[in-house]
UniProtKB/TrEMBL annotation:
Belongs to the CIA30 family. Pfam families: CIA30. InterPro entries: Galactose-bd-like_sf, NADH-UbQ_OxRdtase-assoc_prot30, NDUFAF1. This is Complex I intermediate-associated protein 30 (CIA30). Transmembrane segments: none annotated. Residues 39-153 form the NADH:ubiquinone oxidoreductase intermediate-associated protein domain.
Length: 190
């Protein structure tokens, strides 16, 4: 079911969501996209390059770690047959507020590089998106990706994504042959 998530400005006490050593007291309000507490399986979609003939495989599961819910994406990314991605994607119910400057994740994984893909009202073709990479470790950590760090996947797109035109956000294992495992327990915009 699409569009079930209501996006609102919420005060986040970072010490409750992230270990205190990562708290950033300068950010007290964020647009919470998902904290995986309320039926995330109704909002998040998983798909692979098989939609275009690739052979990558995987899945998404929702679990808890010490009472804190999270999503786990696992799979095998293969560049065979012109493929090379698996992803978990969430359609946004409405654009984020004016003044949004970045994406925040709380993640852990298998010491690999992953990506966030943003789609906007201007990314109408399936292969169009804005991409920013980040690395994960086996420990939960906060990742902040300023919108200025995202790059367009094609030349016919705006150079940077416009916050008010955002339509979806995805966590992606992309671009090379590897085993993927990434856990995500919070997604927000700042």
């Amino acid at each position: 079911m699409r569009g079930l998530i209501a996006i609102g400005i919420a005060a986040i006490i970072l010490g409750g969501a992230v270990p205190p050593l990562m708290a950033d007291e300068s950010v007290t309000a964020q647009t919470v996209i998902d904290d995986f507490t309320m039926q995330p399986e109704t909002r998040w979609r998983f798909f692979t390059d098989q939609v275009m003939g690739g052979v990558s495989t995987g899945g998404i599961a929702f679990a808890q770690d010490d009472g804190t819910p999270y999503a786990r994406m696992t799979g095998r990314v293969s560049t065979a047959n012109r493929g090379g991605f698996i992803q978990m994607q969430l359609d946004l119910a409405s654009p984020p507020p004016e003044g949004t400057t970045g994406v925040r994740l709380v993640v852990r994984g298998n010491a690999q590089r992953y990506f966030v893909h943003l789609r906007t009202s201007g990314t109408v073709l399936p292969w169009q998106y804005y991409q920013a990479g980040f690395d994960v470790t086996q420990n939960w950590s906060e990742v902040r990706l300023p919108l200025g760090s995202f790059t367009a996947s094609g030349a016919l797109m705006r150079r940077l994504p416009q916050p008010t035109s955002l339509r979806s956000i995805a966590v992606v294992a992309f671009g090379r042959d590897h085993d993927a495992q990434i856990d995500v327990r919070a997604v927000s915009l700042y």
